[in-house]
Each structure stands twice: as C-alpha cells, then as structure tokens.
C-alpha cells in the first residue's frame, strides 16, 4: 500500500511540474498565423455586420417602394395634411 502511495506521489509531482517546451516559432509561420487570425476575425465581423444591416436595408427598400406606389396613385405628399399652424 505504501509503495503505491509513493509512486502516486511521484507521478503527481511529475505531472504538476512544467518544463520549457523548447520550441521556436519563426517569423514566417508567426506571420502566417497572424494573417489567418486577422482573416478569420474580418470574416466574422463582416458576417455580423451583414446580419445586423440586413433588416435595415429591407425596411428602406420597402419604404421606398411604398412611397413610389403612393406617388403613382397621385396621392399628396405625406406631410400635406400636417401643415404647421402659425399662432
């Protein structure tokens, strides 16, 4: 039993200590990694912007079509009935 506890302690000590990786990332691979990261962030930002602006574009298009249909019917301007009154 004590043998198992001693080996368990040694295993836990070996796992808990960290050592240097002794790895080197050269400038070429580092720039490639950064370029891919920036490309991914730009694509996500463009997709998010498109999703946010899509309903606004639909609203503007629908409003423009309604105004054109209103003008084709020969209706008056939308503010004609709301003339300001002077005191």
Any key phrases for this structure?
87 residues, mainly alpha, 70% helix, elongated
Q: Would you kindly provide a written description of the structure presented here, covering whatever features stand out?
A:
With 87 residues, the protein is an all-alpha fold. It has a domain at 44-74. It has two helices and no strands. It has helices spanning 2-16, 27-72. The chain is elongated, with a radius of gyration of 34 Å. The relative contact order is 0.04.
Topology readout:
Elements: H1 2-16, H2 27-72
- Largest pleated sheet: none
Instruction: Tell me, briefly, the overall form.
Output: elongated
The topology string of helices and strands comes to HH
| Radius of gyration from the alpha-carbon trace, in angstroms | 34 Å
- Please state roughly what percent of the residues sit in beta strands, choosing from under 5%, 5-15%, 15-25%, 25-35%, 35-45% or over 45%: under 5%
Structural class: mainly alpha
Low-pLDDT stretches = none
Quick description:
With 87 residues, this protein is mainly α. Helices cover 70% and strands 0% of the residues.
């Amino acid at each position: 039993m004590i043998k198992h506890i001693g080996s368990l302690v040694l295993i836990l000590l070996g796992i808990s200590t960290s050592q240097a990786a002794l790895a080197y990332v050269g400038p070429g691979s580092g720039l490639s990694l950064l370029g891919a990261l920036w490309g991914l962030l730009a694509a996500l930002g463009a997709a998010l912007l498109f999703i946010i602006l899509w309903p606004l574009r639909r609203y503007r298009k629908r409003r423009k079509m309604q105004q054109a249909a209103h003008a084709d019917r020969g209706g008056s301007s939308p503010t004609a009935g709301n003339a300001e009154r002077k005191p």
